[in-house]
Amino acid sequence: MKQHFANLIEEEETAIDMTPMLDVVFIMLIFFIVTASFVKEAGVDVNRPEAATAVQKDRANILVAITDNGEIWINKRQIDVRAVQANIERLYAENPQGSVVIQADKKATTEVLIKVMDAARAAGVYDVSIATAEQ
């Protein structure tokens, strides 16, 4: 009988408590979800012009699309040119490390492109790029 109790005590002592490890994994999961930057889409496909000197842009979180007929799209919504600055300010406040990438159709007018670039700079974002297709 004494031997039986000794075996039970040894089994209890050798058990590993997994609760602290699960707590650490759960906290790490929450940390990665909170710090992750999610890619937002402009909401419309455009036919971008090609460029030989195009480079890959990291951390492009604010995408603005300009269609061939001058429509401006941000976050899958069509935006009036007067509301571009306010929308960029809001998105930039959500992620201050992000930059603005303008996806202008190759048939879009330069006037609309310049208005969007001016609105981005007026919103306080000076890292503005224009998306192109690779050659």
TrEMBL record:
Membrane topology per the entry is: Single-pass membrane protein; Single-pass type II membrane protein
One Pfam family it belongs to: ExbD
Coiled-coil spans in chain: none
Task: Write down the InterPro entries for this protein, in alphabetical order.
Answer: ExbD
Q: Which UniProt keywords apply?
A: Cell membrane, Membrane, Protein transport, Transmembrane, Transmembrane helix, Transport
One annotated GO biological process: protein transport
Query: Where located?
Result: Cell membrane
**Transmembrane segment boundaries:** 20-39
Family, similarity comment: Belongs to the ExbD/TolR family.
Please report the name of this protein according to its UniProt entry. Biopolymer transporter ExbD
Origin species:
Pseudidiomarina taiwanensis
Q: What is the lineage of its organism?
A: Bacteria, Pseudomonadati, Pseudomonadota, Gammaproteobacteria, Alteromonadales
